Amino acid sequence: MIQVRISSRGIQMNGHADRSVNGQDIVCSAISALTCNLLNSLEELTDNRIRAETASGKTIIEWEQMDDKGQILIDSWFLGLTAINQEYNCIEFI
Fold it and tell me: Are 83 and 27 in contact (CB under 8 A)?
């Protein structure tokens, strides 16, 4: 189970989808791809300053302030996670 906590100042994710063995889990890969794209998009397409920390099964993204452009990117990322969760029931939003 992947735990996702979203606040006004950041996102914290912990865990694995546990749908297959590490390195072959397509659900974890999909979530990782969406999250990596969110990080890249926030850095390249907005003027927001973010701090990101990633490790196996853990992602932390923090910011002081998020503009409307950045919030749309976060909302889009969230829609992707929600769609994955509807299919695989592997995310706990806390």
Answer: no
N- to C-terminal Cα separation, the chain: 12
Alpha-carbon gap, residue 73 to 68, rounded angstroms: 9
Task: State how far the Cα of 60 lies from the Cα of 44, in Å rounded to an integer.
Answer: 18
The identity of residue 42, as a single letter, is L
Q: What does pTM read for this prediction?
A: 0.92
Q: Which of 62, 50, 49 is nearest to 13 (CA)?
A: 62
Tens-digit pLDDT profile for residues 41-88: 999 999 999 999 999 889 999 999 999 999 999 999 999 999 999 999
In a 13 Å sphere around the CA of 54, the CA atoms on its Cβ side amount to 9
Strand-pairing partners, residue 24, are: none
CA angle 55, 93, 57 (to 5 degrees): 15
